[in-house]
Specification:
The protein has 8 helices and 13 strands. The protein has 285 residues and is an alpha/beta fold. The strands form 4 sheets. The chain has a 6-stranded mixed beta sheet, sandwiched between helices. A 3-stranded antiparallel beta sheet has the order 1-3-2. Strands 5-6 form a two-stranded antiparallel ribbon. The longest helix is centred in the C-terminal third of the chain and has 25 residues, at 231-255. InterPro entries: DUF58, vWFA_dom_sf.
């Protein structure tokens, strides 16, 4: 994250991570031989291996390995609460680097990528497409992101229903800050599309530990409301409530069959990349 250029940062992160990692494959018609299997009624006769038939007098299908291509939509919460900072970085900056790295990785594997930004009660939509120019446009849009306002209202969700009818991978990056269950309303909407969903829940180290270096007045970034807190006295009760909230959130995600991962903004992106590849491969098979 010390590299300010998203394109270069994403390439540096992914190239380092992918060193030694095999690309994902599925069985199908391709160029690289994988294995034989017995012929089944309905199989494409062009896949029959006639040399194997001549040797064994039995019909075999020649299977090969092919790369899988899917459509991936990145959904970014850019409401004002994503301006929360810990040290030199805000949550939205971490989200930018995370999405840029995942998008670069997806593009590297030939996947179509799209970007949807939830900000200031509106929705910015960039339909999924596969080419390097599209990836550059996605980087540009990420670089322009400045969190503002409250989370997007359901009336603007129409763009989420456009596009291909096949199953997609939806990657949602958010701090799960909500006032009226709007995050879970969105997830219920996404679930109705029957896509695979991954939620990366961003937390800052200072909010996990309630350690804000002597501050006593705290402001809600979305409503402007303030509260006085003695951090030392409040810390134990606060962390109990936070742990309860995180467990309840995890269970709600599990009930919706959504893959859920908390990320602290001082952590490297490696685990997020592994989780992303795991879910991408799951959808491809």
């Amino acid at each position: 994250m010390a590299i300010k250029d998203l394109n270069l940062s994403a390439k540096t992160t992914v190239d380092g991570f992918m060193n030694g990692i095999n690309k994902s494959v599925i069985k199908g018609q391709g160029l690289e031989f994988s294995q034989y299997r017995s012929y089944q009624p309905g199989d494409d006769l062009r896949s029959l291996d006639w040399k194997m038939f001549a040797r064994s007098d039995r019909y075999y299908i020649r299977e090969s390995e092919v790369e899988t291509n899917i459509s991936i939509r990145f959904l970014v919460d850019a409401s004002a609460s994503m301006n929360h900072h810990d040290g030199d970085f805000t949550k939205i900056e971490y989200a930018k680097y995370l999405v840029a790295s995942l998008a670069y990785l997806a593009n590297l594997q030939g996947d179509a990528i799209g970007l949807y930004v939830f900000k200031d009660a509106d929705l910015f939509a960039m339909a999924a497409k596969q080419d390097y120019q599209h990836l550059s446009r996605l980087f540009f849009q990420l670089e322009q992101l400045k969190p503002a306002g409250s989370f997007t209202q359901p009336i603007h969700y129409k763009a989420l229903f456009t596009g291909a009818q096949k199953r997609e991978l939806l990657v949602f990056v958010t701090d799960v800050y909500q006032s009226n269950a709007e995050i879970f309303d969105l997830l219920d909407t996404l679930n109705s599309l029957r896509h695979e969903i991954v939620v990366f829940h961003l937390l800052a180290r200072n909010e996990v530990e309630l350690d804000f270096k002597g501050y006593t007045t705290f402001e809600d970034l979305e409503t402007g409301a303030t509260v006085q807190i003695d951090q030392v006295k409040a810390r134990k009760h606060y962390q109990e409530n936070l742990n309860r909230f995180l467990e309840e959130t995890r269970m709600k995600m599990l009930d919706r069959k959504i893959y859920y991962r908390t990320l602290i903004t001082d952590q490297a992106l490696d685990q997020a990349l592994r989780d992303f590849l795991k879910q991408r491969n799951k959808l491809s098979i």
